[in-house]
Amino acid sequence: MSAAMEPLPTSYEPPTKASELAWSGRDDGDGLDVRRWHQAVAFHDLSEPLDHCFEPTLCFIGYASHEGVRENMGRVGAEDGPRKLRERMGSFPAVEGVSLIECGNIRPAATVVETQHALAAVVERVVRAGAVPVVLGGGHDQAFGLFLGIARASGNAPACVNFDAHLDLRPIPARGPNSGTPFTQAWEWCKEKRAQFRYAALGVQRLGNTAQLFTRAEQAGATLVDADGFALDMIEVVMDAVNDAIDEAEIALSIDLDVFAAAFAPGVSAPNAMGIAPDAAFRRVLRGLIASERVRGVEIAELCPALDVDDRTARLGAAIVFEIASTLGDGDEDEDGDEDDVEGGAEGDDDASREAAEGDE
Ligand SMILES: [Mn+2]
Questions:
Q1: Per-residue buried b or exposed e for 181-196, using 16+ beta carbons within 10 Å of the residue's own CB
Q2: Residue 328 and residue 348: Cα distance in Å, rounded?
Q3: N or C end: fewer C-beta atoms under 10 angstroms in the chain?
Q4: Within a 10 A sphere around the Cβ of 354, how many other Cβ atoms?
Q5: What are 110-165's pLDDT values in tens digits?
């Protein structure tokens, strides 16, 4: 270990032989045109310095904990989410120009807060190296670890953009934070640092949040887009709202899989009958965010394999990571999309993503 580097918290577990085995899948040979993620992925112990990444690089970090879900009185099982997501990503075709690095897991520490801080330490290291941490969860308490790690690496509070049926703005109970409080923690962190709390919650369900939580969202200055916003004719309105909410800030991107309807995502602690669909409207918003080049980290939360049906939810979470990778891989392309044809802009070349990209300068 380099003398200059502080040791990481003990709940960080570097990649092991077992994590290498977790990355497996179909093998069509090693040619560049047939390679898959399990062949393309590199392994790195973050206790050692990570070379600066000049190309788009995704660093996978498992948040193998459902202690925050348990504290929130939800159904447990999300500690097994990271393993399952890796299993479902292994056979994806390699994306040209995008590097993949497996960085190991965060295991539950004595408290949820400690586990969040362990994640933050790892995220900070990845962001400082110019790579994008992709947190594979795990309970949604991980969102505060992602926020904190990005904030420390960049010196500014990132805007939180959260696809979620729930606001996750619950007051923090006396026993400590849980999977329903990560954005309260980010809000309080911002108050303490006199930083602006920027929060956009997308896909929010009326039936999943009490009046108190909507009041708190208003007090926090949050931007809410309910599930009806995810229609192709609403994309520009949604992206305008998101752009207003995040302003010039960098983005910590959260995808709680319970934002999707239970038909698509049964394997979560709290499924939603009328959640959004992982359709073209959702994917355009996702791609628009990634194409803005302001997303400093991503977390995929709440996958509970034991509650899943034929890995449906795991496949969806994995597919979202693939969308992110392929959008990053498209970054240098300059395809001409027909601006009036929403589907023509589906590669992230739409007005909204361009606007977001310009805001970066
Ligand atoms: Mn959530």
A1: bbbbbbbebbeeeeee
A2: 10
A3: C
A4: 17
A5: 999 999 999 999 999 999 999 999 999 999 999 999 999 999 999 999 999 999 99
- 278 C-alpha vs ligand 1 centroid, how far in Å? 17
CATH code for the structural domain at 12-358: 3.40.800.10
In angstroms, rounded to a whole number, what is the distance separating the alpha carbons of residues 56 and 322?
Answer: 13
- From the number of C-beta atoms within 10 Å of its C-beta (0-12, 13-18, 19+), residue 210 rates as exposed
Work out the number of other CB atoms within 10 angstroms of the CB of residue 322: 15
C-alpha of residue 189 to centroid of ligand 1, in Å: 18
List, for residues 48-82, the tens digit of each pLDDT value. Answer: 999 999 999 999 999 999 999 999 999 999 999 99
The mean of the pLDDT values for the chain is 91
Q: Any idea where the domains of the chain sit in the sequence?
A: 12-358
In sequence order, the β-bridge partners of residue 59 are 101, 133
Find the 183 Cα to ligand 1 centroid distance in Å: 9
